[in-house]
Amino acid sequence: MSSGNSRVKTLAITGATGFVGSATLDAALTQGFAVRALTRRDQPAHECVTWVKGTLEDTDALGSMVDGADAVIHIAGLTNTPDPAEFETANVAGTANVIAAMEGTRAKRLVFVSSLSAREPALSQYGASKHRAEQLVAESGLDWTTVRPPAVYGPRDVDIFELFRSAKLGLVPLPPGGGTSLIHVTDLAELLVALATRRRLKVVYEPDDGRQGGWSHKEMAQAIGRAVGRRSVFAPNLPAGLLGLAAGLDRMVRGDRAKLTADRVGYMCHPNWIARFDRAVPKDIWEPKIESEAGLKATADWYKREGWL
Fold it and tell me: Per CATH, which fold does 4-150+184-208+275-289 belong to?
């Protein structure tokens, strides 16, 4: 594998108003890049950010976003929905539109944010959509790198926050036995910006927090418990059938805002969402800086300050 640095001055970012995207925008600006970013809604003006109004379905907006950019970081996508058919539109067609917009421009470098769920596309429609999007990226004529983050946590996250809230109550229901890797959103953002400045890296990376072998579900639950100030939490492993019933209940209670869906249950019950060592990012490109025990504690403190916990 060959690689090299390049003088990237302007980054185009999709999803820059979301959890991972906003952290990536911050990282890019901190490092002195100008940014062109896609947004659905009006955003505060920033001298180094050109906001482009539009969506992944808006080919004109995508063209405006990539025009003049040296590299593109494609983060935008759908992670949860009551209608799994929407994954195809957002994650597959949306990625195809980004690729098409880049054709014929100077923006030939694409960093695509996928998911570990793409390793097992048969388990969920979300994972299947990310797998198909990865294929589109690999088959494009672009200079690409795909990143499959594990569970991403940090301030402003609303998904893993559910575990923090449960831990505060002393009970963290878990899927069947297994393990996962973690990564702090700031570390992930730093990686995405670093990859945007590299060339000839047609490879799929699976980054993590540096913890060899990842975290068992119970270890993660106890670590989150410590982060919120509990010496221990009750963390039972629930069978897939019971989680399915819980998903139905969540839909009844929260409707379209339900966090636990049948599609999520499909991949949650897989025993191994641990980043693979043979897909690790070379240390000369990036290394994680935030150890997860400390990162979880800082995240819990943020939730408390903001009144979430």
Answer: Rossmann fold (3.40.50)
